[in-house]
Fold this sequence. Notes:
It contains 5 helices and 8 strands. It has a single domain, classed as P-loop containing nucleotide triphosphate hydrolases (Rossmann fold, 3-Layer(aba) Sandwich). Strands 1, 2, 3, 4, 5, 6, 7 and 8 form an 8-stranded mixed sheet that branches. By secondary structure, it is of the alpha/beta class. It is 26% helix and 26% strand.
Amino acid sequence: xxxxxxxxxxxxxxxxxxxxxxxxxxxxxxxxxxxxxxxxxxxxxxxxxxxxxxxxxxxxxxxxxxxxxxxxxxxxxxxxxxxxxxxxxxxxxxxxxxxxxxxxxxxxxxxxxxxxxxxxxxxxxxxxxxxxxxxxxxxxxxxxxxxxxxxxxxxxxxxxxxxxxxxxxxxxxxxxxxxxxxxxxxxxxxxxxxxxxxxxxxxxxxx
Length: 207
C-alpha cells in the first residue's frame, strides 16, 4: 500500500496568464466562470483589464496559481495589450463560435503573441459560446486544424454552462513549466483563491 503524501510534500507555483480576444466573445464571462463558478447575464465591458486569481490542483500534489489579466477587447485599448502579456507564461485567446470574424481576429492575437510575447508562452485557443450551437459559424474542425498547425491548446467552451472551462485552464496548468518555475512548498492549504469582488479593474500594470 502506497504511503500517503504529507502536506509538506505539496508543491506550489504561480504563473501569469492573460486573456485576449475581441469584445463580446465572452472573455470576462469565461474567467468569472473559472474563478467564481458564476455567470452574469449582464456585464459591463472591461476597462483596460481586470485582475483575478485562481488555483488549480494537479496530480503529484502540485498546485498552480494563476494571476489572470482579463484584457479589454475594444480597439481603443489594443495598444495596452503588450503591457499585460509582457512576461506572461500563458495566454487564452478567445473567439465566439457564432462569429467567424472573431476567429480571424484571434489568429492575429496568436501571431502577435508568438512574435512579441515571452519565449515558450503556452497559448490556448478557446471557442466560446458552445451553448449557442444552433448559431455556429465556425466549424469545430476548422478551428482545431488551425490550433494544431499553430501549436495551440484547443477547447470549445461555454461560460454559460461551464462546459470545458475548468478543463481548459487545467490543461494549461499541466503544460506550464512547473519544475522550472519559482515552485516552493505550499505553506497552508486555504483552498481556492477567489477575489471577493470578482476582480480588480486596472488600466495599467507593472507586470
